[in-house]
Write a structure and sequence with these properties.
Keywords: Membrane, Transmembrane, Transmembrane helix. The chain crosses the membrane at residues 84-101, 107-125. This protein is mainly alpha-helical. The chain is built from 5 helices and 2 strands; from the N terminus they run ααββααα. A two-stranded antiparallel ribbon has the order 1-2.
């Protein structure tokens, strides 16, 4: 004899809608998500900018190391840089995770976000990523000076 179990049909979308509504109502989560998406989009565009600039400036294959016949151009070099960057990020992540394992999670999260935001802004606003942090006004003045046409200055 087989026992039958009555199964009531539930709308799967009703549960999903309720869960989505709960998540969307959390204002801190929304702000953090939007900020994360903004940072990732800026970071990805930086890689595209560097790739195009390297392709324009290193169009002819040049030797990577002296006494080796291995030559690279801008596109190959950006691939190599991304590979090295990935290895460095993974290695540093393992070391830092081990170092901060005994701190409170919220403290580690907020400190990491603050450091990430500071260094990303520093990298975006300055020509030297390890240089000092420039304010928006100083950066705009610097860009206006560099982009201005100074070819007539010598004639004056």
């Amino acid at each position: 004899m087989v026992d039958t179990v009555s199964i009531t049909k539930q709308k799967p979308s009703g549960h999903l809608t309720k869960a989505f509504r709960t998540v969307v109502s959390n204002r801190f989560f929304l702000i953090l998500t939007i900020a994360g998406f903004s940072l990732v989009s800026v970071e990805e565009q930086l890689t595209n900018y560097i790739g195009v600039r390297m392709d324009n400036e290193i169009s002819d294959p040049t030797p990577l190391l002296p006494y080796f016949s291995f030559e690279v151009d801008g596109v190959n070099l950006i691939g190599m840089l991304k590979t090295v960057n990935t290895l460095i990020v993974v290695s540093c992540t393992l070391v830092i995770a081990w170092m901060v394992s005994h701190y409170h999670e919220k403290f580690v999260l907020m400190t990491g976000l603050a450091l990430f935001f500071y260094w990303l802004c520093n990298h975006q606003l300055s020509n030297n990523s390890m240089g000092r942090f420039r304010s928006d006004v100083d950066c705009l003045r610097w860009r206006n000076y560099v982009c201005a046409d100074h070819s007539n200055d010598a004639r004056k």
